[in-house]
């Protein structure tokens, strides 16, 4: 217990040492000019604001836990630091370890096991999307009069027209359908020869907008246009899902200026991308003020998963990375900034999960949550705004029944309650349990990104004990997952395995279909887009019915 106590002390100390930069120390801040800043006060408040708040949800892609100024990063993020310092920092905030899972849980308020998307991500060539029987957040907000707009990365499937963002509740959509692509050309190759264009405006390829503009800047310009043309007296929901800082690592040259000293080329490029993203969010905030939205707005910022060290991201001092259920894969940068907050300038250490935004935002929008919708999220607005206790006491991080099974996992290792070969992770109060193969488990210190001097990465490596398929941590005392307590507290392990088993009884079958050759963009005018036609399926089934009829008739004749 002494070791755990020392770790708890270290974690508190490390949190206390995090500082932040402010706009004030940098003059006007990135992207602002004297004229713009002075004009903000004059143009605010165009008419009486609606009682329903404007909701702006900004989702960054692959931003590591350490990759923000107020978490001690060497990368400057003055906009994020200022917005977070004036709002509420979420320091016990969880997402999913990959793109599709986080996005699906945000937009439905449901765990992956309840949508069938519990395995991996939706691939470009798969006939798969967020199941159509799931009600989405923009659909619920439209019911109560919101104008709904999405700008950026969708990654929730597109094989049928009904899967597209405009069919799932958004009035307008401008962005990409896939998980990644070139920031300038908007082309993506899924495999050799399977390449296509991926920039859309509503339901059509946006060839007219293909001017070689870097996507972070292009998406910001689109947001500014939407805000300029909308009436601020009517509520708006803006979902801005930036492509940055996901690979490929690309950024305009001017953003490298402050990072020439970073030797590691991936980290340097990543830093430039994050600097550009920070400036973009400043420009979005200025637009909210300029066009009269800000005073009645709620800005939520979140990363979709942990950083990828091989692509420049840092989750230090957390363990693991994107794609894993260690804290480095699922504990995210997040904050809320709003003039409507009661406890501004505070830190929330209560348990919050990405599914919680669904009920929270619908309630704030004065909407209704249907009784038959079985949600996994909670309304946590009072927790964030007033500092009250979170209604959430547990998080099912996931159960993935088709992920590579751990060789030594067994029912015996799970006390007959759970097969520990299965990849799963759950948090209950202070405790976190992992089973199966949780993924890449190293700690990657900042020094690992240096190309000079001794590489400390190896000092932070850990060899997983042969045959081990269960881990237990007290995350409150040991947020860095350095002391496995599974052998010391078998009763706690059993309780958490029992909870996993209960969750598993409510799971729906996994949706992870094989590739469909009809998805090839060459068959669709060189564009990634819907390829599955409902009438084709009907024709096929009609044909097969006809063929079966003919067979029956032949058999009848033979019998006669």
Automatic annotation (TrEMBL):
InterPro entries, alphabetized: Alkaline_phosphatase_core_sf, ARSB, Sulfatase_CS, Sulfatase_N
Pfam families according to UniProt: Sulfatase
Entries under SUPFAM superfamilies matching the protein: Alkaline phosphatase-like
Cofactor(s) essential for the protein: Ca(2+)
Residues covered by region (Disordered): 508-560
Basic residues composition-biased segments: 546-560
Family annotation (CDD domains): 4-S (cd16029)
Domain Sulfatase N-terminal span(s) in chain numbering: 53-365
Recorded GO MF terms: metal ion binding; sulfuric ester hydrolase activity
Residue ranges with Basic and acidic residues bias: 532-545
Keywords linked to the UniProt accession: Calcium, Glycoprotein, Hydrolase, Metal-binding
PANTHER family assigned: ARYLSULFATASE (PTHR10342), ARYLSULFATASE J (PTHR10342:SF69)
Family: Belongs to the sulfatase family.
Listed name of the protein: ARSJ Arylsulfatase
The gene coding this protein: Arsj
């Amino acid at each position: 217990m002494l070791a755990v106590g020392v770790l708890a002390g270290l974690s508190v100390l490390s949190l206390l040492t995090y500082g932040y930069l402010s706009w004030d120390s940098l003059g006007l801040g990135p992207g602002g000019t004297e004229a713009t800043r002075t004009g903000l006060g004059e143009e605010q408040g165009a008419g009486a604001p609606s009682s329903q708040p404007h909701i702006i949800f900004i989702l960054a892609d692959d931003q590591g836990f350490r990759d923000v100024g107020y978490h001690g990063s060497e990368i400057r993020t003055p906009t994020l630091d200022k917005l977070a310092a004036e709002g509420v920092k979420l320091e016990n905030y969880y997402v999913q370890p990959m793109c599709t899972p986080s996005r699906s849980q945000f937009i439905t308020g449901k765990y992956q096991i309840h949508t069938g998307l519990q395995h991996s991500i939706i691939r470009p060539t798969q006939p798969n999307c967020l199941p159509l029987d799931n009600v989405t957040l923009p659909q619920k907000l439209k019911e109560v009069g919101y104008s709904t707009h999405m700008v950026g990365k969708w990654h929730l499937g597109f094989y049928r027209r009904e899967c597209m963002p405009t069919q799932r509740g958004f009035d307008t959509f401008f962005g990409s359908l896939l998980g990644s692509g070139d920031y300038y050309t908007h082309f993506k190759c899924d495999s050799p020869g399977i390449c296509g264009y991926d920039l859309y405006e509503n339901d059509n390829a946006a060839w007219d907008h293909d001017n070689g503009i870097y996507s972070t800047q292009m998406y910001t310009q689109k947001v500014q246009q939407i805000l300029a043309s909308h009436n601020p007296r009517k509520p708006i929901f803006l979902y801005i899902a930036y492509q940055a800082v996901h690979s490929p690592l690309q950024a305009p040259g001017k953003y490298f200026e402050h990072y020439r000293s970073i030797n590691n080329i991936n980290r340097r490029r990543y830093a430039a991308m994050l600097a550009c993203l920070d400036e973009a969010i400043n420009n979005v905030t200025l637009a909210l003020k300029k066009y009269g939205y800000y005073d009645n707005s709620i800005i939520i910022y979140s990363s979709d998963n942990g950083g990828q060290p091989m692509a420049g991201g840092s989750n230090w001092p957390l363990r693991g990375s994107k794609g894993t259920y260690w804290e480095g894969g699922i504990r995210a940068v997040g904050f809320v900034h709003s003039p409507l907050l009661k406890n501004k300038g505070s830190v929330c250490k209560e348990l919050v999960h990405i599914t919680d935004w669904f009920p929270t935002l619908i309630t704030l929008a004065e909407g209704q949550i249907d009784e038959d919708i079985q949600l996994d999220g909670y309304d946590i607005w009072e927790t964030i705004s007033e500092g009250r206790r979170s209604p959430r006491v547990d998080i099912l991080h996931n159960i993935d029944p088709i992920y590579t099974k751990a060789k030594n996992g067994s029912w015996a290792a799970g006390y007959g309650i759970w097969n520990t070969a299965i990849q799963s992770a759950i948090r209950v109060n202070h405790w976190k349990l992992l089973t199966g193969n949780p993924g890449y488990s190293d700690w990657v210190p900042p020094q690992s990104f240096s190309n000079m001097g001794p590489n400390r990465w190896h000092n932070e490596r850990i060899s997983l004990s042969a045959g081990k398929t269960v881990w237990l941590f007290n995350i409150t005392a040991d947020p860095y997952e350095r002391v496995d307590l599974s052998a010391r507290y078998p009763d706690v392990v059993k309780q958490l395995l029992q909870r996993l088993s209960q969750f598993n009884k409510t799971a729906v079958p996994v949706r992870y279909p094989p590739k469909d050759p009809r998805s090839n963009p060459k068959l669709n005018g060189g564009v990634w887009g819907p390829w599955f036609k409902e009438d084709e399926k009907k024709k096929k089934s009609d044909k097969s019915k006809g063929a079966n009829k003919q067979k029956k008739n032949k058999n009848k004749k033979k019998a006669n």
